[in-house]
Structures are given as structure tokens and as C-alpha cells.
Amino acid sequence: MTGYILKRLLSAVPVLLGITVIVFLIMAMIPGDPALAILGAYATPENVAKINRDLGLDAPLVARYFIWLGNMLTGDFGTSFSLNRPVIDEVLDRFSATLLLAGTSFVLCSVLGIAAGVISAAKQYGWADKGITFAVLLGISIPSFFLGMMMILIFAVELRWFPVSGMKMAYGGGGFADVANHLVMPAFALAVVATGVVARLSRSAMLEVLRQDFIRTARAKGVREGRVVWGHALRAAMVSIIPVLGIQAGFVLSGAVYIEMVFQWPGVGRMLVDAILKRDILLVQGGVVFVAACYVLFNIAVDVAQSLLDPRIKT
Amino acid sequence: MKQGILNWTRRGVLGAGTALGLAMSLGLAGQAGAQTPPGVLIVGQIAEPKALDPAAVTAVNDFRILMNVYDGLVRYKSGTLEVEPALAESWEISEDGTTYTFKLREGVSFHDGSAFDAEAVKFNFDRMLKEDHPYHDTGPFPLAFFFSSVEEVTVVDPLTVEFQLNAPYAPFLSNLAYPTGLIVSPSAVEEYGADYDRHPSGTGPFTFAEWESNTHVILNANADYWDGAPELETVVFRPITDANTRTAEMLAGGIDLMVEVPPVALSEFEGDDFTVVEQAGPHVWFLILNAKEGPFAEKAVRQAANYAVNKTALVENVLEGTADVAAGPTPPAFAWAYNESLEPYPYDPEKAKELLAEAGMEAPEVTFYVTEGGSGMLDPVAMGTAIQADLEAVGFDVTIETYEWNTFLGEVNPGLEGKADMAEMAWMTNDPDTLPYLALRTDAWPDKGGFNSGYYSNPEVDELLEKARVSTSQEERASLYQEMQAIVQEDAPWVFVANWKQNAVTSSAVEDFALEPSFFLLLKDVVKN
Predict the structure, then answer these.
(1) Is A164 an 8 Å CB contact of chain B?
(2) Beta bridge partners of B415
(3) Gene3D superfamilies per the record (chain A) (predicted)?
(4) For a 10 Å CB count at each end of chain A, is N or C smaller?
């Protein structure tokens, strides 16, 4: 197992290097440069040249790439010019906010999605199944940013149950209850689509397992139906559900970009959108590489978990 | 068999009910907190500030915080764009217009306790302008060129400071009133170095308390402020980049004051719970016409475009009344320099058709650069489409090309030659000199480092602008600018479209709030109940 994990980690190195090249080239190729974003209408060629010199953007492309890569390997991600602060500080701050949001959504979509899928499969063609199938279709079809805006209108502006946006109150907030209160709407809005997908796939995985012989045997032996469904069948179905959860984790992480914009959640997605618009090259590059690294590691973790669950997967 | 699932469902229902109840009670707790406390003003900003060092920033969003923490030597008189004394009590200008001597206010100290004096003023400008200054590396200072005419700052005595300019430069005083001229505490810069921008110390009505990234910047009242203590105890600036979310926060009571209300959201704030404040500012929205080649090389065709565009419909329908129709290149907010006798080109499609026919133009083809957004650009896509329709109605054949803002600047600033005939543009400036000097002179063509992307050239205009820049008499400058405006309007190098009115909304708990023509946000006299 250790060998397998090591092998997977090693194989991640070229992937990450590839990502650094791609993100670097994209940022170098998109038109408009940081000096324009800083100076706006005052961007005379002279002023632009001065800013480029200040930002170290006057060096040749290849040299800039290797300087950046070399610095990053020593843990120096550079300084964001639009925020005047070290990229790594900003990314870590923002990533922890994203993790809180995406993590909560992930738990919500896993628990609700699997539960709905299992109930749906166990009561195939019953009213619960029909209700859940309909709700799932609805959930998958609503774009999350639209759902988010509607939730703000109804639950924040009209009913005033929850705050509109942010992660804590602007003044005198920050306690656990305050953050939890701010988390409810964005976490739910972000979880809806993923819940639908998980529910659908859990349902079909469960239906397949429930038709198998060992389930009939269990029932014949008189095991209670609850135990058959939630014990025997679900455990067997988990093997096909877990990879879906892995994909959904990625989906939730990327979906967080829209949700963070709508709810002004101070996460890494909103950070990247702002940074791209401002051509904050180092912040975009550092942010993307960091998120990609986390995503790659997470995928390795999912694969490892799966191989632990399913002895048929050779390590 | 069904028993198991029913059991679970019952438990599930109970669990869900508990969760919902918990969430609702949390929600109710939040609702109680949504009423912001008296004396505390929460401002919905459009973005996270970059830095709280006035020499290092360029965005109006950052200026809104800085103007409350710092003072400059001079400031704009309330409600105008004319300078009045601030940290300098008085000043003298030498006859040749190159030496400015300021008498400083006595007994003023920075928030960190150090004294404000002539040495502090010298430190500020040397830091920005001299590459060998020990704290020049606390930059970069992108707008330092505002003071590029300053040759030397000399301390005459502790309360007298002298600026030596390399040539007469009339906008100098109004540049000093701009945020780039705000005075920071030298001892705080010495203490924090490159981190100064997160530990700001000025002489202004509010002192810096806390900056939590992406959450808030908090300022507290400076009880010892030289111009009288502010009414508020605390100001909280909250960045909310999404305009819809900012509107929702205002409606829900999460913020007390919101700037830059989207035109379509204004109707939400009718009624007694909110007050909408408007103020015209030094902004002009125009179309650059390519006077070097293509149909707009002919003056009559440029005038035809001015007659063809229905500006009233644009400001009333597309911009929902958040702008006025522009008459010429200078916004009326520069009251002292504005030519009152100018009337906007009327909407007259027949006249436009006549002019086109006289010029012998049969369906002239026009490539039109439109931006998707950008500073001061208002609603550029909708405006571009409406303008396209107006021009086509009189016989132009208009093709729109749309670009994201930074890309757009990269295309437009180097000049339109060989690419386009027309481009949207907007400027906000602090002196009537800036825009025409940088965008209408022959010496401001893109290849000479200026912003005259449409290659307009009129020696008369060049002369007027050069003269106005070196004159030290405001009256003389005013008459030169007024003459320039009349000529430029007649020559029509641009289609003059709109002057934006900045807006803000306050909740009913906020009193004595007003917007300034400078677009700065001054909170010293605001009351929050």
C-alpha cells in the first residue's frame, strides 16, 4: 500500500508541472496586462514600462517562468500586486474559507444524496421514489447561482432569516453561531446539484446490488429489511458510489466559484475571478497551482480509499 | 420490512426538524444583529482595497477609505472642485508659476502621535519621487507622475515648505488635493516599511483600527481632529463586489450606505426607508472617432454621428436617469472652467442624413469597439447597441466588436488606425486640464505617448491647452478652456454622450450624508442613529 501511494504521488509531479506551464502560458497570452489594470486610463507607454519594471514583467518569458517556478519550490509564491500581500497568505486564507464552504456542501450532498438514493431504490416506483426522482430532476436543473440569488431574495431580503452575504457580520461578528448562520444558504445552494447527482447514481447502484443473490439470501435468512438495505446492500453499493463522491468533491470545489460570487463568500474562487480581471498574474498562478495540487492529492486519497474498500483493485 | 424504513424516516423527519429549528433560531439571532448599532456606519464598498497607503493606490474604491484617514495640504471645498486650505493654512505662488510656498497648520499630529511639520511633507514627496530615498522601496507609486513637475521640496522652517517646479504647471494645486497628495506619517513608514499599507497613520478625522482581508476595514473617530471631531464613532467598510448582492444587503439592512447603485436597482429604493443621493462629477462618456482615415476623417460625418445619436434616450432609458447629456469634452462639474453657452448636439436624424449626403457618403462602413465593462464605462454593451441602432437609422453600416476591459484598453490606447473607426471611452479626472491635454492635443497622439487614439489635431486647440497649463490665473485658464470647448465641440473629434451622476443609497438611520463632485466619500459630518 505504501508503494502504491508513493507511486501515485510520484505520478502527480508531471501533472503539477504541466499545470504550472499551462497556467503560466495562459496568463502570459491573455491580452491586457497588469500595468493597464493598475493605471486604467492613465496607461501611457512610459508609465506602463515603469510598472512592468517594478513588477519584474520586463524579463523574457522563459526566464520569468523559471524564476517563478524556482521561487515556488522554495515556498515563495511572490506578492500579489492587487492586494499588496504575499500570495501564499492570501491563498491560504481564502482556501480555508472555500474548504469550509465546499466541505459543508460535500457532507450535505453525500449524506442527503446517498440517503435519498437508498430510499428511492428500496421503495422503487413507490411514492417516495417518485417524489425523490422529481426533486432530484428539479435540483439538477436549477443553475446554482440562480438558486443562490432566489434564496437571498426569499430568506434574506424578505424573511430575514439569514444574512445576505459574507462569512461573518461586518461589525462585532465572527463567533461560531455567526459563521454557521452565514454558511447555511451558500452551503445549501452549492450542494443542491451535487446532491441530485449523488442521489441518482446511488439509486442505480443500489438497484443493481439489491437484485443480487446475496441480498436474496440475506432476506431469506430473515434479516430485517432495514439492515439488508442500510447494511448489506449499501456497503456493497459504496464501491461504485465513492468514485462519484470523488468527482462531486471536485464539482463542489469548482461550483464554489459561482456561489462565492453570489454570496460574497471570501473564498479562493472569488479570489481567482477578481485576480483574473485585475491581471494579478502571480495571484492567479499561485492560486491555480495550489488548488490543483489539492485536487490532485484529493483524487489520490479517493483512489486509495477505494482500493482499501475494494480488494479487487490491485495496489 | 417497511418497518425499518419507516423508523428511519421518522428519525429523519425528527432530525431534519431539529436542524431546521436550529437554523431558524440562528437566523433569528442574525436578524437581531442586522440592525447596525447607532454611531456605527457600515459602508458597502465595491471591492477589497489594495492598500491603505495613498501614494500606492489608483482606485476610487480605495480613495473612499483613504480620504477619511488622511488630509492633504489642500482639499476640495465641499460641493465643488476648487481647492481650499487643509493641512496648509495658506500658500503663495511665485510670479513665474514655478515656486509654491505653503504655510502649514500648527499643532497637528499624526494618529501615531508624531508631529506634522515641513519635514513630514518633504518626506512624503521625496519618498514618492526620488529613487534614492531610503523608503522609495515602499512603493511602487503608480500615480507619482501627478507630481512629475516637482523638482525639489525644501523645508524653510518647521511650518513652511517650498515646492520648486521645473516648469509652470497649473493643475499642481488640484493634484495636491487628489488622494495621491495625501500626507502619511513618516514615523509610521519608518516603523513598518513595506507593511505600512496595512498600518496606516494620517492626520484625518478617523483613525485606522483593523483590516481583516475580504471582511472589513474598521476606522474609529479621531476625537482630536484639527477640524472638529466626527459625529460617528466607527466606520466599517465592507467589500461586496457583486452589485446584486450589494443591493440585497442594503435591502436587508446589512449595510447602512451603499455606493454605485446599479441603475436597474434604483427603483428598489423608493420609499421612506431609504434615501438616494446623486451628484454629478468630473466624468465624461464619449465615442472616440478615427479622424485619420475612413468616414470620420470628414468633419461633416463626425458631426452627423453627433446628430444621429439619441443621447437623451440613452441617459433616460439605458442609464435610467443616472447621467446627464454631455455637451462637450469638459464635464460641467468643473464649474469654473465649463463653457455654459454650449448646447449639446440635438438629436436630429434628418440633419445627420443631410450631412452624410453632402459629404457624398453612401452607407459608410464603421467598425465600433465596445467594452464589456470597466471603470466609469457605465453600461457599455447596452449603450453600444443603442448607438449602433441610432447610427444605422441614418445610414451608417456599423459592426460592433466587443472586448473585455483590459483587452479593450490594449486595443484602443495604441490608437484606432487600421483597426476601427469608433470606440467607447470614459474618463474621470480631477482637473479640467487632464483629459483634453492627454487626449485631444496633436502631441498626445498614441505614438507620442498620449491618449489621442482618434488622431484629432487642431493647432488652435493645442495652443489653448498649452497656454492654460502654464497660466497661474484661474480666470485666464477658465476662458482658455471655454474657448477650447467651443472649438472641440464644432470639430467633433468625439461623439459627446453623457456625464455620469454618481449615486449612493443610505438607510433612514443615516443623516447629513452628501456626495462630493470629486466622487470622494467624506464621512466626517455624517450621523448614524
Answers:
(1) yes
(2) none
(3) MetI-like
(4) N
The pLDDT tens digits of the residues spanning B32-76 come to 345 688 999 999 998 888 889 999 888 888 999 999 999 999 999
Chain A: give the shortest CA distance to residue B95, in Å. 30
CATH of domain B40-273+508-528: 3.40.190.10
The 3 state secondary structure assigned to chain A is CHHHHHHHHHHHHHHHHHHHHHHHHHHHHCCCCHHHHHHHHHCCHHHHHHHHHHCCCCCCHHHHHHHHHHHHHCCCCCEECCCCEEHHHHHHHHHHHHHHHHHHHHHHHHHHHHHHHHHHHHCCCCHHHHHHHHHHHHHHHCCHHHHHHHHHHHHHHHCCCCCCCCCCCCCCCCCHHHHHHHHHHHHHHHHHHHHHHHHHHHHHHHHHHHCCHHHHHHHHCCCCHHHHHHHHHHHHHHHHHHHHHHHHHHHHHHHHHHHHHHHCCCCHHHHHHHHHHCCCHHHHHHHHHHHHHHHHHHHHHHHHHHHHHCCCCCC
DSSP state of B214: T
Q: Measure in Å the smallest separation between the Cα of B23 and chain A Cα atoms.
A: 7
Q: For chain A, positions 94-113, list CB contacts with chain B under 8 A.
A: 94, 97
- Residues 69-88 (A) with a CB less than 8 A from some CB of B: 82-85
Contact A289, A16 (CB under 8 A): yes
Q: Is the peptide bond before B38 cis (omega within 30 degrees of 0)?
A: no
Coil vs helix vs strand at B466: helix
Residue B220 has, within 13 A of its CA and on its CB side, a CA count of 5
Rounded (5°) CA angle B388-B391-B392:
85
The tally of CA atoms less than 13 A away on the side-chain side of residue B195 is 5
Q: Determine the residue type at B453.
A: S
Instruction: Enumerate the domain spans of chain B.
Output: 40-273+508-528, 281-502
B84 backbone dihedrals φ, ψ, rounded to 5°: -140, 165
Model pLDDT, residue B90 = 96
Q: Per-residue pLDDT tens for B187-243? A: 999 999 988 989 999 999 999 999 988 889 999 999 999 999 999 999 999 999 888
Distance from CA of A61 to the nearest CA of B (A): 19
Confidence category of residue B413, pLDDT binned at 50, 70, 90: confident
**What is the helix (H) or strand (E) element at residue B439, kind and residue range?**
helix B434-439
d(CA B440, CA B436): 5
Going along chain A from its start, the domains and CATH numbers come out as 99-279 (1.10.3720.10)
Q: What is the 3-state secondary structure (H, E, C) of B279-297?
A: EECCEEEEEEECCCCCHHH
Strands (E), B107-147: none
Residue in B with minimal Cα distance to A158? B252
User: Considering CB atoms only, which of A44, A51, A173 is closest to B449?
Assistant: A44
Q: Which region among A283-292, B3-12, B413-422 has the lowest average model confidence (pLDDT)?
A: B3-12
pLDDT of residue B3: 39
Q: How close B363 gets to chain A, by Cα (Å)?
A: 33
8 A C-beta contact, residue A272 and residue A289: no
C-alpha distances out from residue B520 to B66, B111, B196, B235, B513, Å: 9, 21, 22, 15, 12
Q: Which residues of A touch B5 (CB under 8 A)?
A: 119, 122-123, 225-226, 229
CATH class of B281-502: alpha beta
pTM: 0.83
